[in-house]
Amino acid sequence: MYKDQLMRTLLFNPGPTNVSDLVRSQLQSGDVCHRETEFFEMVLRVNTNLVRVLNGEGTHSAVLLTASGTGANESIISSIRGKALVLNNGKYSDRLCGIVERYGIPLVRLSFDPLARMDLELVEKTIALDEEITHILFVHHETTTGALAPLYEIGDLAKQYNKLTVVDTISSLGGHPIDLKKDNITFCSVSGGKCLESFPGVSFVVGKTDEIMRLKGKSRSFYLDLYAHWEKEQRGETPFTPAVQLVFAADAALRQLLNEGYSERVERYKALAARMRDGLTRMGFRVLLLSEDVQSNILTSVAMPNGMDYWLVHDELKARGITIYSGPEVLAQRQFRIATLGSITLEDVDWFLSNLSEVARVAGLVLHPIAVEQETKQQRL
Ligand SMILES: Cc1ncc(COP(=O)(O)O)c(C=O)c1O
Questions:
Q1: What is the C-alpha to C-alpha distance for residues 51 and 47, in angstroms, rounded to an integer?
Q2: What pLDDT score does 369 carry?
Q3: I want to staple 23 with a disulfide (CB 3.0 to 4.6 A). Which of 19, 161, 215, 339 is the partner?
Q4: Mutate to test the pocket of ligand 1, among 66, 70, 196, 199 (most ligand atoms within 8 A of CB)
Q5: Is the pTM of this model over 0.85?
Q6: Ligand 1 within 6 A of 204 CB?
Q7: Are 94 and 87 in contact (CB under 8 A)?
């Protein structure tokens, strides 16, 4: 046990995440009216910094929304005039389909094996055969499986066939490399409460500025009208009352991300996941990894040992200040998942592992720990 650990709740669920003391302290920034200059300046700074983080300077603009991540996706989709191709490999791309359908936008749903690399030939064939398709929508990091979509390659296909891309980068921003220009991203969605290490409730759309400007009068949504938000935010204003304190927090979180460096954050997350996977494997859990080009840096799926009562393990960890989350679709496959994102350290991962080890004993799990010597021998064979 190390200092302060008993005071903290550690989140090993895939968002919301632990935030730094600095980000949390922003909630006490004082009472501020969003119609004042200092707030306008902050909105401008937040949007500028987000575009900087993603290498979109000169081509892209960020639009801040008071909404969860789904609100950012809905803001983009409700402005689509055309036909949407959704690359469907999991729950969150199901949800993209749901939003497209709700707005009565023509939809082509292309389904893929959720755990395998997307078949790019099939994507190409589909867009080559259907000239009416205007937008390709997909989720960069599917948070239920930890499967990555080939961001660069899809962007490249979109460029070749002159299509627009709409990418849900809600759980990948900060956890995996993203480059708005190189990856040819027309629109993407970002949420405060994931690898940005801020609070949920503020989200963003980042889009090519010229494409956002084409959206004037196009949105079918009043509240989530992307162009209307963008137009006001050019001056730091917001069309409606924003979550003022959460914007302070997002501002600090973005400055922290810039200070840390984007690729350094990705490396930190890789190291956290590696430590977690190594520790789980040594303890005797079976970690379920996907192929290297598809595997997430932040999510680890684990097979439940025979007889494991997930909720007993969950509740025992919770009593020790540790939260894990697995959706019903994950549990139905006798798996659970552990996320390593947010303002956490390798020591936090070790703390998790030592608690899980005790909980496994309490829960009577039959594990087959890998001794270090045995593992080394196996590696040598
Ligand atoms: C990839 C992805 N898309 C969309 C969402 C939905 O975001 P929210 O619950 O913030 O609306 C999530 C949330 O976990 C997500 O992981």
A1: 6
A2: 84
A3: 19
A4: 70
A5: yes
A6: no
A7: no
